[in-house]
Amino acid sequence: MKIMITGFNPFNGEKVNPAQEVLKFLPDTIRGHRLVKLNVETSFEKAASQVYDALLAEMPDYCINIGQAGGRSGITPEKIAINWVDASIADNTNYQPKGQKIVAKGMDGYFTQLPINAIVKNIRNSGLPAKVSNTAGTYVCNYLFYKVQYWRNTEFPNLKGGFIHIPYLPSQVLQSNQPSMSLNDITNAMMIMLKTVIDYDGLKDITSLYD
Amino acid sequence: MKIMITGFNPFNGEKVNPAQEVLKFLPDTIRGHRLVKLNVETSFEKAASQVYDALLAEMPDYCINIGQAGGRSGITPEKIAINWVDASIADNTNYQPKGQKIVAKGMDGYFTQLPINAIVKNIRNSGLPAKVSNTAGTYVCNYLFYKVQYWRNTEFPNLKGGFIHIPYLPSQVLQSNQPSMSLNDITNAMMIMLKTVIDYDGLKDITSLYD
Amino acid sequence: MKIMITGFNPFNGEKVNPAQEVLKFLPDTIRGHRLVKLNVETSFEKAASQVYDALLAEMPDYCINIGQAGGRSGITPEKIAINWVDASIADNTNYQPKGQKIVAKGMDGYFTQLPINAIVKNIRNSGLPAKVSNTAGTYVCNYLFYKVQYWRNTEFPNLKGGFIHIPYLPSQVLQSNQPSMSLNDITNAMMIMLKTVIDYDGLKDITSLYD
Amino acid sequence: MKIMITGFNPFNGEKVNPAQEVLKFLPDTIRGHRLVKLNVETSFEKAASQVYDALLAEMPDYCINIGQAGGRSGITPEKIAINWVDASIADNTNYQPKGQKIVAKGMDGYFTQLPINAIVKNIRNSGLPAKVSNTAGTYVCNYLFYKVQYWRNTEFPNLKGGFIHIPYLPSQVLQSNQPSMSLNDITNAMMIMLKTVIDYDGLKDITSLYD
């Protein structure tokens, strides 16, 4: 099996993005399965084309996108991608789409194919906070998540996709009263997430499984 | 035109529900359009059957559900209903469904038919905080919102639906450091919401309109 | 009896200050006691000199300062003024003192002479949120509060002083997810506060009284 | 030089207290100075007597108390101890004092003798969030902090004291949306705090120093 995992580069004036930092600490194989790591630009169009090209080149079984969710205190796997973009700030190419669909004729929303309840349970069991999120926002994160789901429904029928939001690193919130998580803990949580994806691969109705 | 508007009764130990309180202060007609007000039980099944029966009896043009979103500081019209229920507390009939679809073969998500960006803009212009929300949660609120959308797609093709979350009343947060909004302000915001719905009725692509 | 009550003008880019707005709606007498209302500049030195001059001119029994505490959800009477200033932003005269004592030889802290527990209880009984605060910050609010307490200990032995922080108005948080309170509710809370001060005047150990 | 450092045991239903956990990872000497570690009960009277006895037995130069501040996202050295106790929950001996002075004739407040601005600066420079706090609350933490300050002023004139609040551990907030900090990061921050205390020992006006 092959798992592609992506991480965005820093945006909105930040010097680091925990999503890109954590990729550096993940192995190349997990339990014999290959892990393909991809850095993507925090840009609506660039991220989409980078991931689309990589999907074509690698034909992975899973495409898991990691993104920073400033203000969240734990790991939050996303339940649904929605067909909507409404950017409150410009992306890294200075593009700021407001209130529009991502795909004109696309479905309103697509559920993830990841076993997110099991992921949350296993991360908590390791002593780290986690919670299912029901919104990935309306910025680049949700945009990429939706695009992957749309491609799955139109071009890559065997692909399974999902999005994992992670907190700020401590160094990003030195003076701000915002929650954070250490890079070491985020890395451990991502390893648990990946092992859970592997363990649940092939099971039916995985999104409703808690055990 | 006929607009049905519903409000839940108190739940989770609360003595009031702002959604039900605000209904008492809304008029029976707005700009010549009839407003049908309906109190519903904070119960997955009862709320659904109460609203379904009322839709059959009244055949309204709009079905707008109002619900309390404890912890939110402003009026938050919801963007999307999702096909998922996962209750962290039991409802008023002691029913607590965990991790399952609402409708087995239903779509993952349905966008609202309300002009939510315009509603947010108009409420802000009146001096009150408002923001589009991209998640109505996975409790009774989202359940009812999803059911109405599902019925629209299967039985009531001319129905338009939407969900508006409102903050706690001040009396519900006496000691809790949670945000609240006065009943008078909530009522004013609901009047603006209703007038906006009427003003935008019949316009195309209203969900993307900011003006 | 004579009660002086002060409110700051807008600062930090705000167009209004709820403290100054609420003064407009307070009466000139309460239960036969005179209420002297004073607008003060959000400036360390100007506010202090304005209040000092007014204390000399009016010789009030109480000096109650009202200030905006952005981010707080209820009315928060302050317990203690501390001998420290550390401004994170400049005041309205572009003065920004960092890490220093307010009065070189002053006490580290002074407790208020207001019956703050009773005020909190009475405001809650009226259906509005309130809580004792143990820090008035290290900006202009605490500075003025401390100065009044210092003057009480050196020049005005019969003066009683206190500081009441109030939330943002709804119009100040249109898009910000911050809590707010309507001007009407703040006004009602300030009336309850003033009546409680009058009711408890002359009682001993009022700061520890809950009833 | 001898530094005594204390940590409370778990309270309010928690299974761990980060203050007690971090003590386990601190060394016995830092730069040649002895570190005396003391576990104390989360009890108003027991903690006070445990620390008083240890002060008599050890005669340390510094007494630094560490406590858990649930809900805070960074390390928060406290500025001031106040002469007030008002417990919202019972302590570990089921004692819950309400609204009263700690020492009948004591000062209203005492500033810490720790270089808290320098501590905050140095912790931030290491990449971890920190902020001066101006309230240690009115529970056991402030009580112990005040008692030590009072003893300093009456019996131990050479003693210097201070209180450091630290966040929850990740394992304490698995499902709660509250911020946390890893034990490894808390330990590093406490090492920086101790080294800063040592570096600034003997300097004048340390509380106002930022550099």
UniProtKB/TrEMBL annotation, chains A, B, C, D:
It is an enzyme of class 3 (hydrolase). The active site is at 78, 141. Keywords: Cytoplasm, Hydrolase, Protease, Thiol protease. One of its GO terms (molecular function) is pyroglutamyl-peptidase activity. The keyword Transmembrane does not apply. It catalyses: Release of an N-terminal pyroglutamyl group from a polypeptide, the second amino acid generally not being Pro. Removes 5-oxoproline from various penultimate amino acid residues except L-proline. NCBIfam families: PRK13197.1, pyro_pdase. This is Pyroglutamyl-peptidase I.
